[in-house]
Design brief:
This protein is 36% helix and 17% strand. The protein has five helices and four strands. The protein is globular and about 30 Å long.
Length: 129
């Protein structure tokens, strides 16, 4: 397999997704299936993608935050996003913060995913055609 560096800061996402595959094998598969999209963080674009999620072809969008938001701001933003009822579920990751598994992204990020699809994965169901 060819090792590539994609997106901002020449991050080796293949390495990252392989590293977290034990806790999130779906992320690795989505990356190679081409259903993971990377975007520079823009709150307006995130909101637009949330509103139009059902017409979206991506399974996950990783918004590369960089130094735009602090750890506390990331946490607050994601909590606020998850409080509303939407088709999406949100997560954040920061290179200086780990809950013990050292699975954090190499750059600060907000991750937007389909809530229903996550439930299917969590329940061990296959994606419906």
């Amino acid at each position: 397999m060819e090792r590539r560096k994609d997106h901002a800061d020449n991050i080796d996402w293949v390495w990252y997704f392989r590293k977290i595959s034990k806790v999130c094998p779906w992320a690795y598969k989505s990356y190679f299936a081409g259903t993971t999209k990377f975007e520079e963080y823009d709150s307006d674009m995130l909101e637009l993608n949330d509103l139009n999620w059902s017409s979206n072809t991506w399974e996950v969008i990783v918004y590369l935050v960089g130094d735009t938001l602090s750890l506390d701001e990331l946490d607050h933003k994601v909590k606020k996003l998850n409080k509303r009822k939407s088709q999406c579920e949100y997560f954040w990751s920061h290179p200086t913060f780990s809950k013990g598994g050292n699975n954090q992204t190499p750059t600060a990020a907000i991750i937007q995913q389909d809530r229903a699809r996550l439930e299917e994965i969590r329940n061990g169901k296959k994606k419906k055609s």
